[in-house]
Automatic annotation (TrEMBL):
InterPro entries, per database record: A-crystallin/Hsp20_dom (IPR002068), HSP20-like_chaperone (IPR008978), Small_HSP (IPR031107)
PANTHER family in alphabetical order: HEAT-SHOCK PROTEIN 20 FAMILY MEMBER
Taxonomic path: Bacteria, Bacillati, Bacillota, Bacilli, Bacillales
Short name of any one Pfam family annotated for the protein: HSP20
UniProt similarity note: Belongs to the small heat shock protein (HSP20) family.
The protein, known as: Molecular chaperone Hsp20
Top-rank taxon: Bacteria
Location of the SHSP domain: 44-155
Length: 155
């Protein structure tokens, strides 16, 4: 059989709208900027896998340190719960780009939240527990008090 005369019996493929949209954004110069922003947050975000927390003790105190680079102090929330410490970080990022020449305006907003719960071997004394935030390191410390164990008696 001659290949020149051979025709494919399948009907011609229809164009896929999503592929066309993807192609459009791949050609747009702003797409490169948005992709680099996405890559940054996917690869460098403390929210993707939580954030490192370290618990250690001195002679008189327990100390918790959390590494929070690039986080604003206003985004950090600390909750003291008997013998547990909850550290929550909320990050609200807004990005706008404009290209007057091509009349393109983009706006992206991303909200992320990460939380860590640290169980201490001591009861937390709220009045003597202190926190500081310096150079991306959150440090919380308080005095060592033995855990109070509640027991239930059977009548």
């Amino acid at each position: 059989m001659d290949e020149k005369n051979h025709q494919d019996p399948r009907p011609p493929m229809r164009r896929n709208l999503m592929n066309e949209i993807d192609t459009f954004f791949q050609q747009d110069p702003f797409r490169g900027i948005l992709k680099s922003i996405d890559d940054f947050f996917e690869n460098h975000s403390l929210f993707s896998g939580g954030f490192p927390v370290r618990l250690y003790e001195s002679k008189d105190e327990w100390i918790v340190e959390a590494e929070l680079p690039g986080v604003r102090q206003e985004s950090i929330h600390i909750e003291l719960l008997s013998d547990r410490l909850r550290i929550a970080v909320e990050n609200d990022v807004s990005m706008e780009t404009k290209n007057e020449e091509k009349d393109i305006h983009t706006h992206e907003r991303r909200f992320e939240r990460a939380e860590r719960l640290v169980v201490l071997p001591y009861t937390i004394d709220r009045s003597r527990t202190h926190a500081s935030f310096l150079n991306g390191i959150l440090k919380i410390h308080g005095p060592k008090y033995p855990k109070v164990i509640d027991t239930l008696t059977i009548d």
